[in-house]
Design brief:
There is one protein chain. The protein is α/β, with parallel strands linked by helices. The protein has two domains: 267 residues, Response regulator (Rossmann fold, 3-Layer(aba) Sandwich); 128 residues, Response regulator (Rossmann fold). Helices cover 35% and strands 15% of the residues. It is built from 13 helices and 15 strands. Strands 7-6-8-9-10-14-15 form a seven-stranded mixed β-sheet, sandwiched between helices. A five-stranded parallel β-sheet has the order 2-1-3-4-5, with helices on both faces. The protein has a three-stranded antiparallel β-sheet with strand order 11-12-13, with helices on one face. The longest helix has 18 residues.
Amino acid sequence: MFLNPRFYVLPLLFFITLVLSACQTITAPKWWEVPGTTPQARGPAPGSYDPTAAPRQGKEIVPWDPSQPTVAHADAQAQSQEWMTQYDVRGGVRAARVGLLVPLSGRAANVGKEIMNAAQLALFDFAGPNYELLPYDTQSTPEGAVQAVQYAIADGVSIVVGPLLSKSAQAIAPYLQASNVNALAFTNDSTAASQNVFVLGVRPEEEVERIINFAALQGSTRFALLAPADEYGIRVRTAFEAAVLANGAELSKVVQFLSGSDDLPAMIRDMADYDERRKELLEQKAELEGKEDALSQKALERLELLQTVGDVDFDALLVAAGGKTLQSIAANLPYYDVDPKKVRMLGTSLWEAKWVRAEPALLGGWFAAPSAKNRGEFVRQYRSVYDANPHRLATLAYDAVALSAVLANDKGEADYSRQTLTDPAGYLGRNGIFRLHQWGLAERGLAVMQVKQKNFREISPAPKSFAPVTN
């Protein structure tokens, strides 16, 4: 069990999380408030469940196994007696009790440790005297997550922070519904959203929409896509096609590839119409070679410097890839004469790696990602305490725990209802502003970054509120 004595509280940092109540009357804005509201929350509601449905409509909770101790209770036998007799597991102490579902063992244990570290930072920054954070090991598996959420519910938690993995979030959903407990999951998979599970991760669909909208505003009219032929690529393609059409632009090419495939260079060659453009070049050169006038000779000299003639049939290319795949694509694009001076290179947050700045084909390109300005202060705080750089997902853990802490008062009273969590004004966190929608997805304010040789430059700041833009 993590408790938070006042003398352990770290200095407050001035841009962190809290909800702005649309109904509250105030004379001056507080440092944590996100100004402005949007009465109609944006986005499609799937309608796959009824948010107003009564609790305990899901699967009943399996009886707790007293032979398996929780992290919070060393005496498993005594705790099982409290659970089975419905005794007050809080021991008469009124407290906001929050369950942290995190992989402390298994394949995701390293990430889980960093999530735990970030959660403790938020705990010390924001928790009051009657706030309790109870960690449970999900063992990096859906089965482990189910066991962990059963223990958490048995321990009387009012909200769950986590789990990390999409399948784990889906697995615990029936237990959350049965107990009427909400969860703030770290996954970015929209299919994990449900009546009691909020998807807190930064979704690729949002990044695609942001970068396509920005590129269209800057004059791009013909868009192409390079994306993997996997679940991520399917989600990117769906969002890409919708965003291009919404901007009244032309959908030029869509190329999806198998990760690690040897066919990727050939697919880029075909996407760039390289053979046709090369053939046209050779034909023009052959025609000029038989002429001896000065104008023809100058034209021939110019053609000798080219690989092809004519432009590709798109002026913006979204490359939704990272790591070695992105390196391969960056090498093949100029090889097949896709000129970054004529084609705007676009990306997602997968581009946010230092080596990208050394790739000539990507220099000047744009990608959408959470603002580095908000995250920077958290990174410095994390380094000062743990002497290491945090995992990208650590900010989600910090924001989720901070949110659960500030929604609780010093008397141990907390409102973690769906109505409160989905306040349309939203919250200000380490990844910028975000708000939760009734259908379980988080909407985020993202920045547009440009790839420069020395850094990533923010060329379109993330919005500071969800208030409608007015002229």
